[in-house]
Specification:
- This protein has 310 residues and is α+β, with helices and mostly antiparallel strands.
- It is 30% helix and 26% strand.
- Strand 12 and strand 13 form a beta hairpin.
- Helix 4 packs across helix 5.
- The radius of gyration is 20 Å and the shape is globular.
Length: 310
């Protein structure tokens, strides 16, 4: 029996009652309704994942479900927003019950973890494309933005970088196998709790989706400043360090995307308020451009900045 659109939604996605207080009306009507508390602003973000562009064919659909929601929650984290709801749009070549059950399982498991309600979306036939729109709440005036960095601010990372890029190289047959690197590529952890903690501390923030050099570059451009990065202070896993030692590809941590760690800046007087586990990797400067200090020598960084969408 052919699986129709509304049966697909009912069976795989409209399976849980609302768990977030902001949800007034979820799936089932022409629109969802959200209650926005007084003094709060609504943060809205959307991300899409296209087969052969963002993931290989035959990737485990449970991993795709997790990652699609995770990358959207990461955007909310970078703004210091508390996630509350998400919409989901699926373009599918056909309605495969096993694929849908696994995808929905990965998606909804992460949604439950962050008390995010799936409140609507769309399904249609076509080449496999997955898209989600996530919504979050922020007290008015407290959003973390890209344009607030100032000379003298210190630059921080929330965790190791380069692992997802190494995971991609493993899939391409260009690096030794490492299960943790593959896990970082397929199941990124959105730093939602850290984003909330950084309200009132960080002067700017962004998540690492396209690579450190590229994403930090957005902060520098929006803030009209430059920066110096300390390469030997970059937080690297043992696997990434081993890869660099074996190949000499020391640019991997600067250019690899998909880590979804937070890169943020904060003035020196906020240093004691920085949450544990964050590494200080450089300093914001008034001189435009990105400079890199490596092995005691400083030079302008002019290498590949990261993933380019077009």
């Amino acid at each position: 029996m052919r699986l129709g659109e509304f049966e697909l939604i009912r069976r795989y996605f409209d399976v849980e009652p609302p768990q977030n207080a902001a949800t007034a009306l979820g799936i089932g009507d022409d629109c969802a309704l959200l209650d926005i508390p007084p003094g709060q602003q609504l943060a809205v973000t959307t991300d899409a994942m296209v087969e052969t562009v963002h993931f290989y064919p035959h990737t485990d659909p449970a991993l795709l479900g997790h990652k699609l929601l995770a990358v959207n929650l990461s955007d909310l984290a970078a703004m210091g927003a508390q996630p509350c709801a998400v919409t989901l749009s699926l373009t599918l070549p056909h309605a495969d019950p096993d694929w849908l059950a696994a995808f929905a399982g990965g998606f909804l498991q992460l949604a439950r973890r962050h008390q995010v309600d799936l409140i609507g979306g769309d399904t249609t036939r076509g080449p496999l494309c997955l898209s989600a729109q996530a919504l979050g709440l922020i007290p008015a005036g407290q959003a973390l933005r890209r344009g607030g960095a100032r000379p003298g601010d210190m630059i921080y990372l929330s965790g190791d970088i380069g692992d997802a890029g190494l995971g991609l190289k493993i899939l391409q047959g260009r690096a030794f196998n490492d299960p943790e690197a593959l896990e970082r590529l397929h199941r990124p952890t959105p730093r939602v709790e850290l984003g909330l903690q950084l309200r009132g501390i960080a002067s700017s923030c962004i998540d690492i989706s396209d690579g450190l050099a590229a994403d930090l570059g957005h902060i520098l451009s929006m803030s009209n400043v430059g920066a110096r990065l300390e390469w030997d202070k970059l937080p690297l896993s043992a696997a990434v360090s081993a890869y660099i030692l074996e190949t000499g590809d020391w640019t991997l941590p600067l250019t690899a995307g998909d880590d979804y760690e937070l890169c943020f800046t904060a003035p020196p007087e906020k240093q004691r308020q920085i949450p544990p586990g964050c590494a200080c990797i450089g300093e914001i400067q008034s001189q435009p451009g990105l400079r890199l200090r490596r092995f005691g020598r400083e030079h302008p960084y002019s290498g590949n900045s990261g993933y380019a969408h077009f």
